[in-house]
């Protein structure tokens, strides 16, 4: 009897070991996926490089126009410059040269250029015609009530330094450029975009259309020597 039990035990134990050895091994855990790489922050635009490569030819590296028909940008409000570049790019403001240049700029580029030129120091300029200056001073400070023309100082400040992005610096600006812009506003080639996006330009369109040619020349001359 005892022999029979031992023999049965010997036969059962190898079967159990064989069953254990043939059981499937637990599946290995898959390796953890690496965390996605964080993209590097885009480098800030090099405004000085853009200026030297494109802007300086007309506006100077220091923001002073290289000809009386090219505006001085030094000291203009940064937001104003950025907004004008955006308007050129969108076709709100028309100028073939500036539209072609603005088309190549990103929003960051425009902001960088605005900041760059706003930090440049404006130069003190002088007016040339005393009679025009006297007439222009009256309009700049008090407007022309009979023609419903408000004082320029109300928006551009008494010293012509401008206010934020909406109203640019006008003191020290070339009289030729200012006169040309007043003519453009009056004629509707500026500040009269079909979509009405140039809100402040539309204000200037209304005001300039009420000025005579002599008024425009007088105001432009006064602004050039304003400080």
Task: Summarize the structure in short.
The chain is built from 10 helices and no strands. By secondary structure, the protein is mainly α. The longest helix has 21 residues, at 2-22.
Q: On the 0-100 scale, what is the average pLDDT?
A: 87
**String of helices and strands:** HHHHHHHHHH
CATH-derived architecture of the largest domain? Orthogonal Bundle
Q: How far from one another are the termini?
A: 126 Å
Could you name the ranges where pLDDT drops below 50 across 5 or more consecutive residues? Answer: 1-23
How many structural domains are formed by the residues? 2
Shape: elongated
CATH topology of the largest domain: Cytochrome Bc1 Complex, Chain D, domain 2
Q: Rounded to an integer, what's the Rg over CA atoms? A: 37 Å
User: What characterizes the major β-sheet?
Assistant: none
Query: Given this structure, which CATH class of the largest domain is correct?
Result: Mainly Alpha
Helix-strand makeup class: mainly alpha
| CATH H-tier superfamily of the largest domain | Cytochrome c-like domain
Q: How many helical elements? A: 10
Proportion in β-strands? under 5%
Write down how many β-strands occur, each being a DSSP E stretch of 2 or more residues: 0
Q: How much helix is in the residues?
A: 40-55%
